[in-house]
Write a structure and sequence with these properties.
The structure is a single chain. The protein is 78% helix and 2% strand. Strands 1-2 form a two-stranded antiparallel ribbon. A hairpin with a 2-residue loop joins strand 1 and strand 2. The N and C termini lie far apart (44 Å).
């Protein structure tokens, strides 16, 4: 892959500007963290909804129906998440349980009717915004905020695992681009021709080494740290390829245009979504195995 200084500088400058604003929201307190997640979620959802519509060619009526169902699904996920982290036991409320099951019933009925009438492909891409966007952010990123204690540095609160998600994605993407532009010769896959094996392996290696070193003083479990960062780094690469495949199916180059040199929200946070899900599942499995 040829080295383009102008593109590289544009990516770095816009990326640094965006990361600076993102870190302020991430580290101020839990409420600004939620604002950050909300911005990412709705930006990614909007672009993912457009992509899924292009792939399965939904008409206006089906778009409105899908929009309503996804609003109900998001409400259900938010209610579930709030219930998990509120103090006290709210699960015994008859009204809460009834509302939960009624919503779940209608959402399930809608998707089952899609399967019967329009087939599994249509169902899969209709579920895509919920499974690809809502679940990783509403369930995964909130869970990751609480699973490890946060650290106070002056007036800032640093949540360990959400920070790890962002660092893995940022390091992987930046180092893979830089190393691939410098020495990359072997294409990684036809799905994303600009990605190289050398760049991907270089980004993976840099991420694993640097982040394991950074984690060690905070979480002194070397084997777990290496495994966790390696899994997150590999999945980060796969997340980028998943979004590239979706764009190919929709016949578009970028998911949007909000960040110069990086494309849309989904172009910037594709790896973030998959990495958040992987760390969420990793932590659940680690907790089960002790």
């Amino acid at each position: 892959m040829s080295f383009n200084k102008l593109v590289l500088y544009k990516r770095v400058l816009s990326g640094l500007f965006f990361v600076f604003g993102m870190l302020i929201l991430l580290y101020t307190n839990f409420y600004t963290y939620l604002i950050l997640l909300g911005i990412i979620m709705f930006g990614c959802w909007y672009e993912c909804f457009k992509i899924s519509t292009l792939i399965i060619k939904r008409n206006k009526v089906l778009q409105l129906k899908q929009l309503l169902i996804e609003c109900l699904t998001l409400s259900l996920l938010i209610a579930f998440t709030i219930n998990q982290y509120q103090e006290g036991d709210h699960t015994n409320s008859a009204f809460y349980q009834s509302a939960w099951w009624i919503l779940l019933f209608f959402i399930t009925l809608y998707y089952f009717s899609l399967l019967i009438i329009r087939g599994i492909r249509f169902l899969f891409f209709s579920l895509l915004p919920t499974m690809y966007i809502f679940v990783p952010i509403v369930l995964g990123m909130v869970y990751l905020y609480f699973i490890y204690p946060s650290y106070r540095v002056g007036n800032f609160t640093i949540p360990l695992l959400p920070t790890l998600v962002f660092l893995v994605v940022w390091l992987n993407d930046s180092m893979a681009y830089f190393i691939g532009s410098w020495i990359g010769k072997t294409p990684l896959t036809s799905i994303s021709p600009k990605k190289t094996v050398e760049g991907s392996l270089g980004g993976l290696l840099v991420s694993v080494v640097l982040l394991t070193i950074l984690l060690q003083p905070i979480h002194p479990h070397t084997a777990i740290n290496i495994l966790m960062v390696t899994v997150a780094s590999i999945v980060s690469i796969l997340g980028d390829l998943v979004e590239s495949k979706l764009k190919r199916l929709a016949s578009i180059k970028d998911s949007g245009f909000f960040l110069p040199g990086h494309g849309g929200f989904l172009d910037r946070f594709d790896s973030f979504l998959i990495t958040a899900t992987a760390l969420f599942l990793f932590q659940l499995l680690h907790a089960e195995l002790g």
